[in-house]
Structures are given as structure tokens and as C-alpha cells.
Amino acid sequence: xxxxxxxxxxxxxxxxxxxxxxxxxxxxxxxxxxxxxxxxxxxxxxxxxxxxxxxxxxxxxxxxxxxxxxxxxxxxxxxxxxxxxxxxxxxxxxxxxxxxxxxxxxxxxxxxxxxxxxxxxxxxxxxxxxxxxxxxxxxxxxxxxxxxxxxxxxxxxxxxxxxxxxxxxxxxxxxxxxxxxxxxxxxxxxxxxxxxxxxxxxxxxxxxxxxxxxxxxxxxxxxxxxxxxxxxxxxxxxxxxxxxxxxxxxxxxxxxxxxxxxxxxxxxxxxxxxxxxxxxxxxxxxxxx
Length: 289
Ligand SMILES: [Fe+2]
Ligand SMILES: [Fe+2]
Fold this sequence. Notes:
Ribonucleotide Reductase, subunit A, mainly alpha, globular, binds fe (ii) ion, 289 residues
């Protein structure tokens, strides 16, 4: 992957465009209950992005100007992903409660997860911690992108599909930053590789689990990633992470999602059919702009 151009990223950054979407068609077609549940989880995760960033910024990551520049834009774009999803659900007659942000924040355990990582003082005090932070970010961006693409392939609402394409384009750029940073910091540094593996093995869970709840995450796993076709984007994401130095062992993403999907199906039965059948052909990654 080529070097990430942070200046170009900032120049091209911004809120995901909404004004030109065909909202009348969107309202007419609406979304299914399954789509609402998936979108609500994703939207809550997006609007709570700042919680992930807050504590991490106390450490070495804050001393690197490329990282602080990136994170400033990243948190803004993620917030807009959440706002865009809320708008779409509202247009489809499924508004959220006025106090949703506060309610979700109260139940969020994301801070605890991050604090657990940071409470390992030796982890926090070394600049090598940044490699773990960047690898963690790369995994989460790929996972979010895979979930949005899976939903985009399934939905019968073309306006939702278009919005998801726009969001995925930004997620790919976020991924590119985290990934190039992680690679640079892991290459030729066995200590950074060991530390990153330690952080991921001991603390990493699928993105949003602390904010959106395990029940909803299990539902998403069963809805989007339980059949062979659905698993392809996750396997691809994991193979990309496996190319990072020292992370060839990382299979937690497919393992956790698989377990969650099985758990959901065992407890609630198969998820109701919805949306279009997935194409059997391989879905290519969108190009990074
Ligand atoms: Fe996002
Ligand atoms: Fe993102």
C-alpha cells in the first residue's frame, strides 16, 4: 500500500453528502425491521466514536502530528456517518428517542475496555503502544466497511445502498491511514509486534460491542455473516490484517463473529429472511479515492 497522504486526506474530508439523495424514494421504500436494528447498532457506534478516541489521546499517539491531524478529521466523519444513518431512519418513519445518545452512553462499556488496555502501565508508557492503537483501528475500519458492504448488497432500498457506498468510501480511507501507520510501526520491530499481539489477544472485541450491546451484535452476525457468501468479506478483511508484520495469527474477527452468529441462531432460531439474496460472485473492494 502506498504512503498515506494526510494533507490530501484532510483536503478531501468532510461530512458524508446527504442533500442530493432521493429522499422521496427512500421514504416510499422504507427499511425492514432487520435493517433498522443493524443500522441502529452501526449508527450508535459511529456517534460514540469520540469515546474510543478520548482516553487514547492521553498517550503517545497524541505526540504524533499525523495521527492527531487524522483523528481530528476521523472523529468528525464518523459522527456524520451516525447522523446520516439517523436521518435515513427518520425519513423511513423510524425516528430515534430524543435522549438516545445519553441512554446509549450510560450503557456503554467501551471506556472500560479501553481503560483496561491503558491500565497496563507498561503498555501505555511505551511509544510502541501506537502500533497497537493503529492495528486496532485498521481492524475496526475493515469490519465496519464489511458490515456496510454486506448491508448494501442485501438492501432493497437504493437510497440506503447509495448512502452506504458513500460511507464505505470514507471507511476505506480511514482504514488506509491506520493500516499504513500500523505497518510502518510493526515492520522490523519484534517488540512492537509482541505488544500489539498482546493488546489484541487480551482486549480486542468486535467494534461496537461495548456501545451497541452483544445481543444486537449477535443479531448482525447472524443476519449478515452466517452463510458462506456472507463470510467472504470478513475473511478478506482478516487476510489483509494477517499481512501486517506479526499479525499472521489474527483470526479473532471471524472466530468471534462465527460464535456470535451461532449463539444467536441457537437462542432465537434462524434470522427472518430479508432483502436480496447475496450475489454468488465475489464483491470487489471499492477503490480508495
Ligand atoms: Fe464510520
Ligand atoms: Fe471509519
